[in-house]
Amino acid sequence: MSSSSGNHDFSLDTRRAKVKEYMTRDVATVSPDDTVREVAKEVVESDGHNGFPVTDGRTVVGFVSASDLLLADPDAPLFTVMTDDIIVAHPEMNVTDAARVILRSGIQKLPVVDDAGNLVGIISNTDVVRSQIERATPEKVGKLMRTLEEIHGVTVSEERRTVELADLIPTQARVYADELEGRHYELKRGLAEPLVVIDNDGTLVLADGHHRVMAADRADIDEMDAYVIVIDDEIDLGMQKTARKEGLSSLADIEVVDYARHPLVETTKRFQNE
Description:
By secondary structure, this protein is an alpha/beta fold. The chain folds into two domains: 15-127, CBS-domain (Roll), CATH 3.10.580.10; 156-273, Conserved hypothetical protein from pyrococcus furiosus pfu- 392566-001, ParB domain, CATH 3.90.1530. It has helices at residues 19-22, 36-45, 66-69, 95-105, 125-152, 177-188, 210-218, 238-245, 263-273, and strands at residues 51-56, 59-65, 109-113, 119-124, 157-164, 168-169, 174-176, 195-200, 203-208, 223-231, 255-257. The longest helix has 28 residues, at 125-152. Pfam families: CBS. Residues 23-81, 82-139 form the CBS domain.
């Protein structure tokens, strides 16, 4: 995402996310002449694939799932067992429309083809969920940018970049162990929303995403995607004062609370018991 001024409109209506922004471009495919045995072996040896687009050259001619292979003759060519009447998406299609197709059809992945019918990517239900998460984050960023400009009388800009976790100054003294489990699940599936970081003239202050950061740290992840609010001339940032007051200078200073549940979880539990 390109940098923008503090007057940038971050409302969701102005950013119509397209399939091409979230699809996987490096797609594993199989040939219609491959045998069931060969493709079944690829499913077993792959990292989480439960099916493949079937292509003749670059043209999509079908899709084969693990269930299509189960009872098939191992020596049968793939074109005899694949599904050849498949739903595809276009890279310019809105992600919300792709989500409707995935939801209503019950499929997990949509091949993405260009105007010539050539395969250019694939979008999954996981990609759709990620797109909705990431589209919500700019609202937080826009609100924080406007707040900083109003309080401190400065002009700020915004960038999307990767940040080193070791460089971050936390502003939250504790996180909850049970919520870390959820954030770890999201990280493994690529669903974690970007962090929100303030670059105060070179000092990186973590404004949002402490549970995500701690889950990543536990998983030996060194860097994460972030929306970075850039302040060119250093200001006396209130959250930095709070961090200094609480002795927070690195992730190691954050306490993981394992004897209490997150307040929202406790509230929900209380409602369920009433």
